[in-house]
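A further point concerns the way the authors explain their paired sequence and structure data. For illustration, here is how one protein appears when written out as sequence plus structure tokens:
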Amino acid sequence: MLTEIDQNIWIAEGDAVRFLSVPYPTRMVVVRLSDGSLWVHSPIHLESGLAGELQALGPVRYLISPNKLHHLFMGEWAEAWPEARMYASPGLARRRKDLRFHAELGDRPEPEWASEIDQVIFRGSFAMEEVVFFHRPSRTAIVTDLVQKFDPASLAWPQRVVMGLDGMLGPDGSTPREWRLTFWNRRAARKALRGALEWNPERILLAHGTWVRSNGREELKRSLRWLKP
């Protein structure tokens, strides 16, 4: 189930989940750190085959929820790897009191992965903030819901209509329009974008839609051009 993107970084496609009555495909990212441990971003439903592949790569040590929507399967991963540390996106711990989080993510990466993975929080929305990551060795930005680029050919016509109206179709896909409206403090979000652009990513892995294989910095800038003053 794992697809290698570059050395020590993989993606896995999960089952679709329904959000606002629309089925969303799911995708997670796995990074193997220099000590051999696994850092798992936005865990998908844990199937036995996937668990076996992960065990062959190394011990799962860090479970990451990048925003308040990507937490559905954290519990089953915690049961499978009780020694793993779970990290909550801003505000998630108050929503999921049934889960035991080690810490809340901030703008600075945790010491355990700071030498290999950087991060920044896109602030400014009263509804939800998202933590965006950057895997330095592969020059890969890891984005969850902030940018979505669905292939129209992969969608049934009702989905195409919804995704099109929400600005999430094809190469011009971006942030859902209703989420954009919640960014009342766009100066804060622009600051985060400047930090992400300084990473100069080559590729962008997305949780939803077609991920960006090259020219990542310019694609990120173009995808979030709505943040301009």
About this structure: Residues 6 and 82 are 28 Å apart (CA to CA). The mean pLDDT is 91. The chain has one domain: 2-224. The chain is about 25% helix and 25% strand.
